[in-house]
Specification:
mainly alpha, DUF805, about 0% strand, transmembrane helix
């Protein structure tokens, strides 16, 4: 198995945006997760402080974050499906681990409880993403 470059990883991320049946290696998954974490940290550290004192900049930053999140939602979701497929995790668990945190963002529980549960589920997703690939052994009969 060859290691993908960062460019190949992002190309795969976007070209497999609607591929729920394929697989994604741990390195492919975590390369994307780390790259987007750094990107959003950059936005939070450098762009948000600049917004103070600039009329309507915070409003446009929020709209920009929503647009970026909307663009990345489907490819990120399918990446998680492909990673869990590679690890042999059933699709129903993937669906639940995506849907439950989204539902918890609705005001159905006190905010601190819903954040705690959503954070716990996010940690569970990261932990499951570390599982090794499930190798399928083919018999020669």
């Amino acid at each position: 198995m060859s290691v993908m470059t960062l460019r190949e990883t992002f190309k795969s991320f976007f070209t497999h945006a609607f591929d729920y049946k394929g697989v994604a290696s741990r390195s492919e998954f975590f390369s994307v997760v780390i790259a987007f974490t750094i990107l959003f940290m950059f936005i939070g550290v450098f762009l948000v402080p600049v917004s103070f004192g600039v009329a309507h900049f915070e409003h446009w930053l929020s709209i920009g974050e929503i647009i970026v999140a909307a663009i990345l939602f489907i490819p990120a979701t399918t990446l998680l499906f492909r990673r869990f497929n590679d690890a042999g995790i059933a699709k129903i668990w993937t669906i639940l681990l995506i849907v439950v945190p989204l539902v918890l963002n609705a005001p159905i529980l006190p905010e601190n409880i819903s954040e705690l549960v959503a954070d716990g589920l996010n940690l569970l997703v990261l932990g499951l993403a570390f599982l090794p690939s499930k190798r399928v052994v083919q018999s020669h009969s």
